[in-house]
Predict the 3D structure of the following.
Amino acid sequence: MLNKQSQRRLLRPLRFYLAALLGILTAACSTLPDVSNLGASLPKAATPSTGTVDVSSRQNTLAAMEEAVTGSRLITGNKVTLLFDGPQTTTAMIAAIEQAKSTINFETYIFDQDQLGLRFADLLIEKQRAGVQVNIIYDSVGSIGTPAEFFEHMRAAGIKLVEFNPVNPLKRFGRWQLNHRDHRKILVVDGKIGFTGGVNISAAYANSSLFRSRRKADAGAVGWRDTHVQIEGPAVASLQLLFMQTWATQHTDDLPDLNYFPKPEPAGDKTVHVLSSQPDGDYSLYKAYILAIQQARKSIHITTPYFAPDHQLVDALVAAAKRGIDVSLILPSVSDSGLAFQAGQSFYTQLLGAGIHIYQLQVSVLHAKTAVIDSSWSTVGSANLDIRSFLHNYEANVIIIDDEFGGEMERAFSEDIRGSEQITLEQWKQRPFSERVKEWAARSLGYWL
């Protein structure tokens, strides 16, 4: 008989393989838009000027281009706090929930019934009974191993819950969209404080990944390496809107009629762009990512656990490296998804040959989805650099255009580099032929991974 910890370890890859299998069976052949030369397609007023420009001017130019490409405006007056790994993130989230006065909207891919999940559930039930309206969206595939009784216990306390795109077709008869998954992680409290990033509610986040720690690793006590952000200010309304739009897609009961959008008040000096990805959407997140890579002048530093990109993203990274840009990727050395891991490795030869630096994080499982470009454009969110995130999933990322925040992101990237092993082209060419076959096979499934 497997204990609960062993069962959870088996369920993590099961979630992934189920989603991949269902994708193969149900996905239509949709494609990402042509973004090969976004800058050239923009109005003259939004394109960068020639010659030498200072950093702030380049920031303003990129901001204008990003607004033109995505069709949505950046939001000023925000406070943004970087949160690293599970303990720091969940501590901040719990503190915000404890102070809630009116509403809590919580959206997550994985909501496990383990020590961490039970702690969250108990606190949310306590707040609901105290008069705070709690609304929860959880993904059916991501939370496939969680007993129904866990959610029913919260529902019985008055919490409103939605199971996003249920695996069971009888639960959503006539609207069965199995390949579309809600991969977002959003928490909004009282419409005034918001969180998003890569952290799920699972035992994998009960411990630190030893990020910025000098103590020796204990394999049994190392958590996943992840990143989240806490936002205060006008941009929180955009996270709130994403939650409500996702709720509406599920054709369930309306949310209780409460004040989810209090009057926005400035809370800091950060300029923020909240962008999303959803099936048949406007691909604003994908476009913003590609645009930032295309407009990079100095460096592109990306951290992602699942790397199965489309050819346009690969082409943009290779073109940047050939322009002399420092392009560096931190990817996993171990993964909860063998197929995604091997699909990512299938690109190593091309990337290394173009001069791109590849590092594999050691000790902990990598789950952070972040990037920092030219030390001033940064993003943190739920989207991986894979086709699934931009084409099939519901995702949410926050973009911050700011030197100070970019510097903090660069320091975190450097710290992860110190905990990583660099892969060289010469070393990579020595791998066994059998590994190459696995990579080729996994890459052929990239559309569905």
